[in-house]
Amino acid sequence: MKSVNPATGEVLRTFEPHDPAEVERRVQAAASAFGPWSARTFDERAHVLWRCGVLLRERAKDLGALMTSEMGKPLDQAVAEVTKCAMACDHYAEHAASLLAMEAVNSKAPATRIAYEPLGVILSIMPWNFPFWQVWRFAAPALMAGNTVLVKHAPNVLGCSEAIVQLAGQVVGNQAALAFTTAQAYGQLALTRPHVGFLLLWSSALLADGCRSLADHCIAGLEPNRDTITEHVGRSLMLVTALTPHIGYDAAARIAKHAHANGLTLRQAALALELVEPDDFDAWVRAEAMV
User: Fold this and answer.
1) How far apart are CA 267 and CA 264, in angstroms?
2) Angle between helix 158-172 and helix 133-144 axes, rounded to 10 deg
């Protein structure tokens, strides 16, 4: 598994996929860390999150540069994303205790309360487009709630995933509280374990109910307007990624910017800038092949 600079094609690092035994070790480590971590007070967990926020701010430029090199985000936006992660750590460190405070409710019983208890190991399967923010926006509240976190990140940003875990491990002193794996079959390997299986079933029930409600109230009876769909797909600037391997990142970005600024399709912009021949564009940019 390779980390590749999308702008230059340079191979930055190579990662060995975790085999089933290593995945099992990491699941067990996260499960073993759950007991001590969930037993900590809110103040103790908050101290950890505060410190994570401090380190994220101190290392924002370096972590932003890593993000830029692995997935191509402009450096200023990458640094801002890391800073936003620090803000998330600050927010949940400050407010988690009040957000998760036990609530008294009226009932016929002598005393009725709603309590928010830690659940266990929380598995996250993350996309690449916000490699730091997607992890921290879920990890910060999950950790403050007393859970441990396991991250299966996108295969093109494993350097970012490793950096996140190393930072958290430096603060906690035990990386099992927030661990990661490179195993691509992680869902199949880890979700069969009882530590995560309960959460899968619980979450799946919620997801199934939501899907049924969406289907009943928003989708049933709808017919697709294929002409409109075809038009919108054809005008999508996201299709420009199909050009990058053929004409390079800079030329592809130039086409996308020209199309956006002038209300053109990518094809119109590419031909207007004389960066791509018509037959080549039609051969390279095929939305149906990108699904």
Assistant:
1) 8
2) 30
Does residue 192 register a pLDDT over 50? Answer: no
What pairs with residue 103 in β-bridges?
A: 114
pLDDT at residue 181 is higher than 80: no
CATH of domain 227-289: 1.10.40.30
Compute the distance between CA of residue 59 and CA of residue 167 in angstroms, rounded to an integer.
Answer: 10
**pLDDT tens per residue across span 254-266:** 999 999 999 999 9
Percentage of the residues of the chain whose pLDDT score is greater than 70: 88
pLDDT at 197: 44
Q: Is 106 left (phi over 0), alpha (psi -120 to 50) or beta?
A: beta
Q: Are 15 and 101 in contact (CB under 8 A)?
A: no
Q: Exposed/middle/buried for 72, CB within 10 Å: 0-12, 13-18, 19+?
A: middle
Q: Does the pLDDT value for residue 92 go beyond 60?
A: yes
Dist. CA 166–CA 153, nearest whole Å: 14
pLDDT (tens digit per residue) in 51-79: 999 999 999 999 999 999 999 999 999 99
What homologous superfamily is domain 2-102+113-205 in, according to CATH? Aldehyde Dehydrogenase; Chain A, domain 1 (3.40.605.10)
pTM for the model: 0.65
Domain borders along the chain are: 2-102+113-205, 227-289
Distance CA 73, CA 66 (A): 10
| Whole-angstrom distance, CA of residue 60 vs CA of residue 79 | 5
How far is Cα 73 from Cα 57, in angstroms, rounded to an integer?
18
Q: Structure tokens of 68?
A: 């830029």
